[in-house]
Structure formats: C-alpha cells, structure tokens
Amino acid sequence: MAGLKYSRQRESIKHFLMITKEHPTADEVYMHVRQEYPNISLGTVYRNLNLLTDIGEAIKISTPDGGDRFDGRTAPHNHFLCKKCGRLLDLELDMKSIEEVNRLAAENFDGMIESSSTLFYGECSDCIKKS
Fold this sequence. Notes:
Elements: H1 8-19, H2 26-36, H3 42-54, E1 59-62, E2 68-71, E3 78-82, E4 88-91, H4 95-107, E5 119-122, H5 125-130
Parallel strand pairs: 3-5
Antiparallel strand pairs: 1-2, 3-4
C-alpha cells in the first residue's frame, strides 16, 4: 500500500502479534497495547488490525464463536481450535501437505486456488490431561 503513513501504535500492534504465540482477539491486543499507549482507543486497534490484515502483515482467523483472532505469522500454516478451552494453536504441517491439499482442491474447482486456510477442531493436550 503506497504512501502508508508510519504509526507507532500500528507498529506496537504488529510487534505484539509477531512476538506472541497466542492468537489474540482485538480486545486482547487492545489490553496489551494500552500498557504502552494508554490513550489508544479500541477503534484504533480494530482499524489497525484490519489494515495489517489487508496489507498482508497479519492474518485474521474467524472462529465459530464469532470472535476473530489475529496472527502475526503470515507464512502459510493451519490452526487448531480446542473446543473445550478455546485456545487457538498453530498446527505444524509440512508445506508438502498444504500444497497437496491445494492441488486436490484445484482439481475439483473451476478457477484458480492461490492458498488455503484450515481450522482443525478437537481437544488440546492440556485439556486432555485435566480430564
């Protein structure tokens, strides 16, 4: 996006997404960034998260409960959502697996598939251990 004005608040949001292994909601990002910028508004956080998503510097992951989560890791990968505790985790698959899924989908689709995103569901190891 040509001519995008630098913003310290946006950089703080992006930095937080890059360093966290979690996949925070906009509210969680807001609570974190507020520690550095106490006057930041929730609307500013939402606008910047959407902008970062639009320019490819973050990923928005829509979950079935209606809450969007955000990820600073933009390389192709999939996610796992624990149905018990709600944690959203990166699911490490090798690139060959992802490319194979894209290839199979493309064989049955009259168009061009450029990428994919899959959300797996189940119970995380922490929840299994608690049961």
